[in-house]
Every structure is written in structure tokens, then in C-alpha cells.
Design a protein that fits this description.
Blueprint (H helix, E strand, L loop, with lengths): L1 E5 L7 H7 L5 E5 L8 H17 L3 E4 L9 H8 L4 E4 L4 H11 L1 H8 L6 E5 L1 H4 L36 E3 L9 H13 L4 E3 L5 E4 L1
Parallel strand pairs: 1-5, 2-3, 2-4, 4-5, 6-7
Antiparallel strand pairs: 1-8
């Protein structure tokens, strides 16, 4: 699986993202990390993400994971139509619940074996790939549970990468101050991690 992991939105090298895609430029946009905000704000922010991807030359459309809670087989068939996923930011713990309840976590692990599939996203959408979500509670509230979600906090990440990620590090972002606390947590607990300033990306072809 190819990775384009951005601190904020598409980052400073979006041309590298389009290069990762083969003939299938259909992208499934996952916006469930924003399920804690009101419907209007969620819809507008998702439209913005879709427009940015369209302007890049991709063919994005949203898949709302809530429609697939308990329906992993249906989601698997749906996902096979896409060349990649774009997982936007928000609350990492809500996103993790959505991935578990829909089975997207298992499907992404399967797609990790697919050399042509592209995983891209930013903020919560990239933090989810780490082995653990411990430390992220200093930035995202793990106790926010939208309607239809399970209460249990899931601390295990997807382990697609072997380090934790601290996006918005020393950036002009409202979460940057808490991200510095998160980095201190990683250091204290001797956890491998990478920091990303807004604009920076991690690319794995």
C-alpha cells in the first residue's frame, strides 16, 4: 500500500499524491472523524475535502462508515471499486470506533498488501495508522461518543506504520500547543514517533 500522510489537508506536495495513483483514480473519502460536529459543519468540511481532491485530478466520493456498521462484507465490495482512500482529520478516537464498527480497520490491513492501493489523509486520518493511540488523548477527547457509536475507547491503532505521529507540530493550528504535550508524552514513555509541521507529508511509494 502506498502512503501519503499529511499533517493538514493535502500538504505542500499534492503533485506527489496524484503520482501515487495508477489508472483507478477513484478515492473513497472517509469523514467520520468529524461525526461529533453538527451536520452542516460536517457536510461543508467534507465538500471542501472533495473539491480539493477533484482539483488535483482525482475522482472522490464520500463513504459514510455509519452506513456500514456491522456490514463489513458490503463495505469490502464497495471499497474494491476505489484506487485509494482519503481519511480526513477530526477526532481520532471516533474515527477508530467507526473503523472497528464498519470493519474498515480490517479492510485497510488487507489493502496494506496491495501495492497499488493508496492510503492518504491528514491529522486523525494518519494518527490512526500507528500501533497505539495512547498520547492522543492529550489532543483529542476519547470520551466523545456520537449517536450510534460504541462507548468503549479503543487504544489500538492499525499498526500500518511502526511509530506514532504528531501532526500540527509547532504550527499555526489551534491544537499545536496540545501536540507539544503529546510529544513530551511520547518521549517520556520512550515511544517511537514522528512530528509533522502543517504542510509536511510522509510519502511511501
Amino acid at each position: 500500500m502506498k502512503l501519503y500522510l499529511s499533517s493538514y489537508r493535502l500538504g505542500n506536495n499534492p503533485e506527489k499524491l496524484i503520482e501515487l495513483f495508477s489508472d483507478n483514480k477513484k478515492v473513497a473519502v472517509i469523514a467520520n472523524a468529524m461525526d461529533f460536529v453538527d451536520d452542516f459543519q460536517r457536510e461543508e468540511s467534507t465538500k471542501q475535502s472533495i473539491m480539493e481532491l477533484k482539483n488535483l485530478g482525482l475522482s472522490p466520493e464520500e463513504i459514510d462508515l455509519r452506513d456500514y456498521f456491522g456490514k463489513q462484507n458490503e463495505l469490502s465490495k464497495k471499497l474494491n471499486n476505489y484506487g485509494g482512500v482519503y481519511v480526513r482529520g477530526g477526532n481520532t478516537f471516533i474515527l477508530r470506533r467507526a473503523m472497528l464498527q464498519s470493519g474498515l480497520d480490517n479492510l485497510i490491513k488487507e489493502k496494506n498488501k496491495d501495492a497499488n492501493f493508496v492510503y492518504t489523509g491528514y491529522s486523525a486520518g494518519i494518527c490512526i495508522l500507528s500501533p497505539t493511540l495512547h498520547g492522543l488523548e492529550l489532543v483529542d477527547d476519547p470520551n466523545i461518543v456520537p449517536q450510534g457509536y460504541n462507548q468503549e475507547i479503543i487504544w489500538e491503532g492499525l499498526s500500518i506504520v511502526d511509530f506514532s505521529i504528531a501532526p500540527h507540530y509547532k504550527s499555526d493550528h489551534p491544537e499545536s500547543e496540545n501536540v507539544e504535550k503529546e510529544v513530551k508524552y511520547f518521549i517520556k514513555h520512550k515511544m517511537p514517533f514522528k512530528t509533522l509541521h502543517d504542510g509536511e507529508v510522509i510519502v511511501k511509494d
